[in-house]
Amino acid sequence: MTIVGPSTPLTEDEVACIRADFPILQQEVNGRPLAYLDSGATAERPVQVLDAERRFLEHDNAAVHRGAHTLAALSTDAYEDARATVAGFIGAASPREVVWTSNATDALNLVAYGFANASRGRGGAAAGRFRLAPGDEIVVTEAEHHANLVPWQEVAATTGATLRWVPVADDGTWTAADAAAVITDRTKVVAFAHVSNVTGMVAPVAEVVALAHAKGALVVLDACQSAPHRPVDVGALGVDFAAFSGHKMLGPNGIGVLWGRADLLDALPPFRTGGSMITTVMMESSEYMPAPERFEAGTQPVSQAVALAEAVRYLQRLGMEQVRAHEEHLAQRMLDGLADVPGVRVVGPPAGVPRSGLVAFDVDGVHAHDVAQYLDAEGIAVRSGHHCAQPLHRRLGLVASTRASTYVYTTESDVDRFVRAVGEIRGYFGAEGDEGAGAR
Fold first, then answer.
1. Active-site annotation holds for 224
2. Looking at 298, 316, 334, which one is the last position of a domain?
3. Which of 102, 227, 408, 426 is deepest in the core (most CB within 10 A)?
4. Which structural domain range is residue 371 located in?
5. Domain named Aminotransferase class V: which ranges (predicted)?
6. What percent of the chain has pLDDT over 70?
7. Is residue 435 situated within a structural domain?
8. Do 69 and 17 have their domain in common?
9. What pLDDT score does 150 carry?
10. Which of 29, 163, 388, 399 is catalytic?
11. CATH (domain of 194)
């Protein structure tokens, strides 16, 4: 269906039409209709995406960029058409700025280890801007997903650079002013999430980019929680690299995207080496292709790329501004409902500050895993744990939290069921009247 329109939440009828495209949502769980509120972890897939991958595998499947037979040509065309579709979706200047990876974690590692390889002397003079040494600094935030923290820890350990981080406030958020206090003349790279997977905070990208570029630093953006849920134009954002995953945006597992400015990708030393990414191989040395092929060694996820492109087209038909408005509306409905539930602490931006369509919270006296299991018994799927953000949870004084996340197929009814069930949890576990005792 095509919905593109003003920046208003989807209507009840529009969401009903969308839900009809998702077979998995038509089932019951534990005897109750499924309310899937875990799209921040992985999104469900519409029949259009499932069918696109199946059609490719049934009719066009072959190795890409190899062979002169008809199926090889068809598969290569489909593979590169998918790249062009994704490039257009994120405002890339050219399809060659889009690199296929196995997921966003892989994409972020590709960039980080490119810095490490350049620091070892790989890549020649062109890679000089990626080289790190003792005295240089890498800046992240205390709110990062481990995928955008651990690789930079490793790069710092390998190169002798210092890892610094922007601290978060008591609610888990940070500001451009906080970043300005950490970014210095020694900063060489600044890496942060566009949208936090715990707090839902939308980062001040433009301000941080300006701060970083003023110091000559490069900016790496984790767009996992933004690209599926709101308009993302990498050119307008001004970042140097961005990464996101297919499975969080109605697409398949096993494929992710690294976007980078063409001049940077052509200069960045590759992370993996082998077939398909070379021009010349001799026994003593090899020469590499320009981007994006230089980063796509070996057999590629072709059917997954085709399916991801179909997921992009599905989202484009809905309109990303309307997707954003729908999710933000649902998040506010969650926040309003949880505000009336005693003993519930929501983390993230205060009232009135924009956030994405996810809400993480703590139920006093009840562990997050018990919260999630109670909700599951009611047919409501949420995420519990530290959400691959242990430092952030530690700063918040939590071992774990429960996270409910929305998407295009989420209804107001899903949210209302969720709020009602959360209101029953403390009574069920005998934790009422125990405010302040802590579930942690």
1. no
2. 316
3. 227
4. 12-45+320-428
5. 36-418
6. 97
7. no
8. no
9. 98
10. 388
11. 3.40.640.10
